[in-house]
From TrEMBL:
GO molecular function: transferase activity
Keywords: Transferase
Gene3D superfamilies per record: P-loop containing nucleotide triphosphate hydrolases
Record family assignment: Belongs to the sulfotransferase 1 family.
EC number(s) reported in the record: 2.8.2.-
InterPro entries: P-loop_NTPase, Sulfotransferase_dom
Enzyme superclass (EC): transferase
Signal peptide (UniProt feature, chain positions): none
UniProt organism field: Urochloa decumbens
Residue ranges of every copy of the Sulfotransferase domain listed in the record: 61-316
Start and end residues of each stretch annotated as Disordered: 1-30
Protein's recorded name: Sulfotransferase
Length: 320
């Protein structure tokens, strides 16, 4: 059972450094299906992990959960969150910084992978505060709020769908963009309908702004320095005047930039999950806004825009 105790060390520490397996483990099957019709069932089904989380997850008050849907800036936010929270032990300019030798997802435990595989006891080895990563809907994670903190990144849904299509094609090359758009519009994407997922975190951020930080991927792209400062304040670790003077914010942004991470050996080789061969380098494709305009037909865009307008009407959350 994952307990609420903590180590004598001060966290966060890279997860790979305290666990034995090392590689990121998701809840994906060992082999992809032979037919694309099985794609949805083959991608991360969170039902087993969700049930295990509900039964066995014991949060600590200092926990920080980094959350998102697939392909919404997850890897970038994971890197930024780790670099920001661990900056005193690991200054961003240090030659031995964990992000220079590890994939960002090796720095944070992936809750679905641990709980679906019965490996959640590995969380006990992490000192507080623990940084954890998930694609789960907020309602599935017991005690995440208002007791702890959650950082969520949201991306414009059409851009998310196009990015997801590019990513899935690395293992499922026959998958079409039209099929991916169908999954998005039908609510059959991994981890459920995108509107329910986004709105679950959005409403929690409105209700508990001290406990849930809702970030927009496009805003992070426009001014990453501002986003990192917001993140640090939310974590209760605002940058001091001395850190600002020393350029620590800019150092974190540069360390975690797409160009920097893409060039690291740990991100050029290996797989996100050793059982399903999504290459790590596929996590670092473009990192831009509005790429959907280069791929979607006008009909696809209108279909998704109609669903977005309907599902988000009256919520206070708008997409450009």
């Amino acid at each position: 059972m994952a307990t609420s105790g903590s180590s004598s060390r001060l966290g966060p520490v890279p997860f790979k450094d305290v666990e034995s397996d090392g590689d990121t483990i998701t809840s994906m099957p060992e082999r992809p299906p032979e037919e694309l019709a099985g794609l949805v069932a083959a991608l991360p089904s969170y039902t087993v992990a969700a049930a295990a989380l509900q039964r066995r997850f014991e949060p600590r008050p200092s926990d920080v959960v980094v959350a998102s849907l697939l392909k919404c800036g997850t890897t970038w936010l994971v890197a930024l969150a780790f670099a920001t929270a661990a900056r005193h032990a690991h200054p961003p300019g240090a030659a031995d910084h964990p992000l220079r030798r590890l994939n960002p997802h090796q720095c944070l435990p992936f809750l679905e992978g641990l709980f679906s595989g019965g490996r959640e006891g590995k969380l006990d080895a992490l000192p507080s505060p623990r940084l954890m990563n998930t694609h789960m809907p907020l309602a599935v994670i017991p005690g995440a709020v208002p007791a702890g903190k959650v950082v969520y990144v949201c991306r414009e849904p059409k851009a998310m769908a196009v990015s997801m299509w590019h990513y899935f094609r690395r293992v499922y090359p026959e998958l079409s963009l039209a099929e991916t758009v169908d999954m998005a519009c039908d609510g059959t994407m991994p981890f459920g309908p995108f509107w329910d997922h986004i709105l679950g975190y959005w409403r929690a951020a409105v209700a508990w702004p001290e406990n849930v930080l809702f970030l927009r991927y496009e805003e992070m792209l426009r001014d990453p320095d501002v986003s990192v400062r917001r993140l640090a304040r939310f974590l209760g670790m605002p940058f001091s005047a001395e850190e600002e003077e020393a350029g620590v914010v800019r150092g974190i942004v540069e360390l975690c930039s797409l160009g920097s991470l893409r060039g690291m050996e740990a991100n050029r080789t290996g797989f996100v999950d050793p059982r399903v061969k999504f290459p790590r380098e596929a996590l670092f494709r473009k990192g831009v806004a509005d790429d959907w305009k280069n791929h979607m037909t006008p009909e696809m865009a209108r279909r998704m825009d109609g669903i977005i307008a309907d599902k988000f009407r009256g919520t206070g959350l708008k997409f450009p």
